[in-house]
Automatic annotation (TrEMBL):
Residues covered by the CobQ/CobB/MinD/ParA nucleotide binding domain: 6-195
UniProt xrefs under CDD domains: ParAB_family
InterPro entries: CobQ/CobB/MinD/ParA_Nub-bd_dom, DNA_Partitioning_ATPase, P-loop_NTPase
Annotated Gene3D superfamilies: P-loop containing nucleotide triphosphate hydrolases
Protein name: ParA family protein
Superkingdom, natural source: Bacteria
Amino acid sequence: METKIISIVGEKGGIGKTTLNLILASNLHYAKGKKVVLLDGDNPQYSIYKKRQRELSFLDASEIEELEPYTIERVTVGSIQDTIMKYYGLIDYIILDLPGSLNVEMVKGLLYVEHIFIPFSHDELEIDSTSNFYFTLKNNFLDNNERVLKSVNLFFNKFKLVRKNKFSLLRQQFEKAGIPIMQSVVKDRTIYKEQYRNTLYPIPENKEEGDMDIKKFFEEVEQLSNI
């Protein structure tokens, strides 16, 4: 089996990377039938791993067996390689959730990621830091034959329709600078955190089906991961 190692990642906290990695993993597994392992590398918080444990605590053994939840493991700088190799070639996706800062845990984790997805909004300072982060990845990982990284893709996060002209201008500026921007966006919706951020269930089948809804973003993540 061809395993893809992917990560929604950013070099600062509060951009929604953990929420999106979690929802992505749940929808690939429960809605798409993919074999998924989610590695929580956000040491020492391990918020995804702890959330899974809380959710399982409300279920009995038969309910857990019926759900067939995907695996979530904690990893450290020392264990990440062995953990990846334990699953590589046996599953469809390894999704790696990394810290929200460019520290040793993130750098070590990035050595193994094949496709990176970077969220950013219209904030001027965030745009500058995201651009710098992209070129850091490009120069040190994407353009380095000794690295496994195949693509770095930016996408609009916390997208608001009332600011679509601003985002359209930003898209032109990034494309002119040679920075790849995904066609799909992630809208600014509280429901992602309050309801859909779940390790045991996918987004309901009849929800998020529109052209600018989050399922379209996940479809594009799948497409780019298979190039």
